[in-house]
Amino acid sequence: MDPTLYLQPFLVSFFGAVFLLLLFCEVLVRVNTSLPVGRWGGVAVILASLLAVVTNPHLVMTPVIGGVLVGSTMILFFGILDDILTFGWKVQLSFQILLGVSLFLFGMRIFSVPVPFVGQVFVNALPGGTAIGCALLILWVVFVTNVLNWVDGIDGLLSSVSLLSFFSLLFLSLSPQVNQPPIGILCATLAGAVFGLLLFNVPPSRFFAGTSGSFFIGFSMAAISVLSGTKIATALLALSLPVLDALWVFADRLCAGVSPFRGGDARHLHYRLREIGWSDRRILLLYTLYTGTVGALALSTDTLGKTVSFILVGIVVLSFLFWVRKKAIFLRTSQCV
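RESULT FIELD:
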């Protein structure tokens, strides 16, 4: 394995993102603008990633990769508009569905899905397999995009979680069992751009990912994980903390009679941890250590092992979520007395 094959796209996207963010710093300092430039960290990530992909001589431009690039460009413009106009959740959800449909039209397919204690179930073998595969792809894109969009509530959280998750997918792509150098190049590219943002996004943050950044990172994570069935299980395990938190909040909102896609209610774990007195740096450290540890675990287990691991960490995470929620309610009640 030639390490320069992956180091080169990592460095191109990293320095590209850093250059653009420094340029945006100059805009903030020298130009009196009403544009939300501070939320354009995601713009830098997208442009740097696109630059690294289109200039990479080792990456063959397949229709599926072309679909990812088209979707990324759509996110770039939609995210800028959303940061300026602030679209509602219905518009954002419709756009996420459109992203999933566009990937399907460019030839991306979910051929199999990991089922606990069963293994890979091949979608095409089921009646109406094409329609089922399309629906699963759209649901997966919408789900992962929202999971990473919702985790973007504290400085550095989205950047650190996604960086470690992209590294997990990178090392999986390079493993002898998978051996997908093109996917490894894409993962290295995304990791480099996100790392560039992280330098400006750690507390106290100078730039935020914004809608463009959170949507792009989630969309890219969903697309790359679909390119191999085992990557879906790996992505789920690496992202298990924000995934389980998202499912918890999803259920909590349904029980409260509000839309599960409507944000702004501080139900997510990072907000509740802040409510019970945790500092932002402590929360960031928790998510980083968890994602790094579980991401490494995902690389060392097969599909069945990932299933068992997800169940075990799920028990721990859900117990922690329950404890944090009860403590937050107790503190809130104590303050009202």
